[in-house]
Amino acid sequence: MKQMNLNSLRVFACVARHCNLQRAADELNLTRGAISQRIKQLEIDLGKILLERQARGVTLTPEGVRCREAVDKALATLETMATDLGRDGEQITLHLGSSTAAKWLMPRMEVFSARFPRISLRTEVHTQQLTRNLARNEIAIWPGKASDPRPFHNARRLTDIRLVAVCSPDFPRPNWPMELETVLTLPLLQDAHRTWEGLIEGAGHRVRHKLLNFDRSALALDAAIEGHGVAIAPTYIIENDVLRKRLVEVWVSPGPPTEQLFVSWSQEHVRQPDVLGVVEWIATEFKQDRTLQNW
């Protein structure tokens, strides 16, 4: 077996995370052709097929799954070593979704900077939950139905994920509160979770609905702020815009939450006082959010 190229392994890890060559190319600022060539060369070097190409993406073969697990662990080890050799404790990487970054984190960055003047916060945005083990000085915020099952992670529940429909205060609408049947008659702004489609189907509607689709919650919420319709998102994502009177709640999902939001970090926390401080700050901010939601 030939000596493997580290960049090819990083490319494979990115493709495995997205299950899509073009998304990996966009993240790594490479062409799709370059990504494909790196993967093919890695498969030749290993003598194994790692990916199955399909019309709408790629899937991992059993050998690809084993390779991804090994590569993720190796990259996490390298990340930890680089952190130890560099500015120990001064930079923390936070992994989270794009809408959580835009709507929850960004409004709090001034408070964060004042609370942690010595820490440089680096964010990495993901469309799916991070699959590799977290390295030292890394934190992840992610939605799920149970706590982090990986044995090398600590995890802490932050909040239940409750869905709320919102629109601009100036958007023409019936008086609040509304029944779902009434909400579904309005122009609907939908993100990649396709929540409105599920509610429409669950209500047994067969008529055509006015749906405007976006690939992330933050864009749908921005469209709602501009008065284009009604968006639906978790309470922790909309609370800042509601407090600033850019959005108003028009409907709250009556069912019990099926997912929670968690924060995870490596079990190397004994040597990570800055990480523990940031985790505690995140948890405190979510407690304040829940207090505001109960007003």
TrEMBL record:
PROSITE patterns: HTH_LYSR. Keywords: DNA-binding, Transcription, Transcription regulation. GO terms for molecular function: DNA binding; DNA-binding transcription factor activity. The keyword Transcription regulation applies. It comes from the Bacteria. Coiled coil: none annotated. Residues 4-61 form the HTH lysR-type domain. InterPro entries: LysR-type_TF_proteobact-type, LysR_HTH_N, LysR_subst-bd, WH-like_DNA-bd_sf, WH_DNA-bd_sf. It holds the Pfam family HTH_1. The keyword Transcription regulation applies. Belongs to the LysR transcriptional regulatory family. This is LysR family transcriptional regulator, glycine cleavage system transcriptional activator.
